[in-house]
Specification:
The chain is mostly helical and about 200 residues long. About 45% of the residues lie in helices and about 10% in strands. Strands 1-2 form a two-stranded antiparallel sheet. It has a two-stranded parallel sheet with strand order 3-4. It is elongated, with a radius of gyration of 23 Å. The N and C termini lie far apart (about 90 Å). The model is unreliable at about 185-195 (pLDDT under 50). GO terms for molecular function: ATP binding; ribonucleoside-diphosphate reductase activity, thioredoxin disulfide as acceptor. One of its GO terms (cellular component) is ribonucleoside-diphosphate reductase complex. InterPro entries: NrdE_NrdA_C, RNR_lg_C, Rrm1.
Length: about 200
């Protein structure tokens, strides 16, 4: 017991070699090379276009893809629906609720939950976290609330970046034209059935 006390006193006085090593930060390039999301952040989309010097390619949340294949739900049409819904599974009827609960995007998760998870990690991080928060349309009241909650939770960094959504969404060039025509055709059929013509 005496040896532990001596060690404790030396640590308090001199510190520990390599004691400041953990500072989780978003590492987009490295994470994407290994098919992961940046750091500890929630996915902003379950499908997106990745642009590099080598070109442009589509990336899908690998875990979601595995689940959809396992459930025999994955198809070309579902991929297009996912693009149409900006990478969210929440409004796609064919996807089970259990999957929807697991694969929420950063825009669909409560920021209070994200801050709470950061506070849970904080005791194990000797520096700080690059905590990014996501609000589609932030207000002063939301920002104030998030900052105070982060402070009261003991975080060293309340927010690194605030990510917002653009006012208008991008044109979905990768949506299959045949699917769009099929959707329009079925809508036209419904209109005819409604007016009985």
């Amino acid at each position: 017991m005496e040896r532990w006390e001596i060690l404790r006193e030396k640590i308090l006085k001199f510190g520990v070699r390599n004691s400041l090593m953990v500072a989780p930060m978003p590492t987009a390039s490295t994470s994407q090379i290994f098919n992961n999301n940046e750091c500890f952040e929630p996915f902003t989309s379950n499908i997106y276009m990745r642009r590099t010097h080598a070109g442009e390619f589509q990336v899908i949340n690998e875990h979601l893809l595995d689940e959809l294949i396992r459930l025999n739900l994955w198809s070309y049409d579902l991929k297009n629906l996912l693009i149409e819904h900006e990478g969210s599974v929440q409004n796609i009827p064919s996807i089970p609720q259990e999957i929807k609960n697991i694969y929420k995007t950063a825009w669909e998760i409560s920021m209070k939950t994200v801050i709470t998870l950061a506070a849970d990690r904080q005791p194990f991080i000797d520096q700080s976290q690059s905590l990014n928060l996501f609000l589609a349309k932030p207000t002063y009241s939301q920002l104030t609330s998030m900052h105070f909650f982060a402070y009261q939770s003991g975080l060293k960094t309340g927010m690194y970046y605030l990510r917002t959504r653009p006012i208008s969404s991008a044109i979905k060039f990768t949506v299959d034209q045949k699917l769009a025509e099929k959707t329009l055709s079925s809508m036209a059929d419904e209109e005819c059935a409604m007016c009985s013509s």
